[in-house]
Design brief:
This protein is an alpha/beta fold. It folds into two domains: about 160 residues, Nucleotidyltransferase, domain 5, CATH 3.30.420; about 90 residues, no CATH class. It has eleven helices and five strands. Helix 6 crosses helix 7 and helix 10 runs antiparallel to helix 11. The longest helix has about 35 residues. The radius of gyration is 26 Å and the shape is extended. The termini are far apart. Bound molecules: zinc ion (ZN).
């Protein structure tokens, strides 16, 4: 809640409000205490993660042993539409599902905003104030770029401090399909030139992408005067796409080798569209897609 929203809340509750400077100072205290709690929380999470990994590999039980783990990483923003001024990135251990690290990026500082008029009226006075403001570490702005790049920037920060923070290397990243952050940390080589960071795809996101690809296929085919969608048995209906996506996910989850997965996926495609009522063009197109 910002100073303005807090003021409005006080007005509605008929309570005396804080001056914006007092509000800022209270908000700073609250934020600093939240950071301390957050650090304790992450350390406890790292302890549990190490304990769970040690059950599989006892050699990593000691905290001073460097441990390689698989994590999932994603970013989120305060508002939608790639214009948010505040974003957060978060690293989650795949084995336990515990959050190991998070970092907030902000391209907004209320104190700097309040001095916008001074900046226009007296540049020298503003420069003095700005130097003091930045030097004191009070400026809340820690990012100068587009909202989309926040996720990438946070990933670099968290990969760079993983060894110092938890004595862990995030060597496998389970990706949501967006590989910008993975490419950034991969190029950065935070664990030295010989330690390669690998990417694995999240099956739920692959399944989502399959659904999107099949819907796009219907649109592309209709432009070429080929009808794949529509209603009726044997057509690529929305229900058929949903079922194909479910069968695809199941085939990947319940098999261990890629050839077994492929056979199971193809079996689901044959099952869905091998009936006599399925249009020949649809059968041919789908088999081409899955093959
Ligand atoms: Zn500032």
């Amino acid at each position: 809640m910002g100073a303005h929203s807090f003021q409005r809340l006080c007005e509605n509750l008929d309570l005396p409000c804080l001056h914006h400077k007092s509000y800022q100072s209270q908000a700073d205290k609250l934020y600093s205490n939240t950071q301390k709690v957050r650090d304790v929380f992450f350390s406890k999470a790292a302890e549990i993660v190490r304990k769970e990994h040690a059950k599989r590999d006892p050699s990593v039980a000691e905290p001073q042993t460097l441990m390689d783990i698989a994590v999932s990483y994603d970013g989120s923003w305060l508002t939608r539409g790639h214009t948010s001024l505040i974003g957060v990135g978060c690293v989650i251990d795949v084995l336990t599902g515990l959050v190991l690290d998070a970092h907030v990026m902000s391209s907004h500082c209320q104190a700097c905003e309040n001095k916008k008029t001074l900046q226009k009226e007296d540049a020298d006075k503003f420069a003095v104030w700005e130097r003091q403001h930045l030097g004191s570490g009070e400026c809340e702005r820690n990012f100068f770029g587009t909202a989309g790049m926040m996720e990438v920037h946070v990933s670099k920060i968290m990969w760079a401090r993983s060894v110092m923070k938890h004595n862990m290397r995030y060597t496998i990243v389970v990706s949501d399909g967006d590989s910008k952050s993975f490419n950034a940390v991969s190029e950065m080589r935070p664990y030295g030139p010989h330690c390669i960071i690998e990417k694995e795809d999240c099956i739920n996101h692959v399944c989502k992408r399959l659904g999107t690809a099949l819907r796009n296929l219907i649109v592309d085919a209709s432009k070429r005067k080929i009808t794949l969608g529509g209603r009726g048995e044997g057509r690529l209906t929305q229900n058929a796409i949903r079922r194909l996506s479910i069968y695809f996910t199941r085939a990947v989850r319940s098999n261990t080798t890629s050839s077994e997965m492929r056979d199971a996926i193809m079996a689901s495609v044959y099952y869905m569209f091998s009936k006599a009522s399925a249009p020949f063009m649809l059968q041919r197109t789908l088999f081409m897609v899955f093959l």
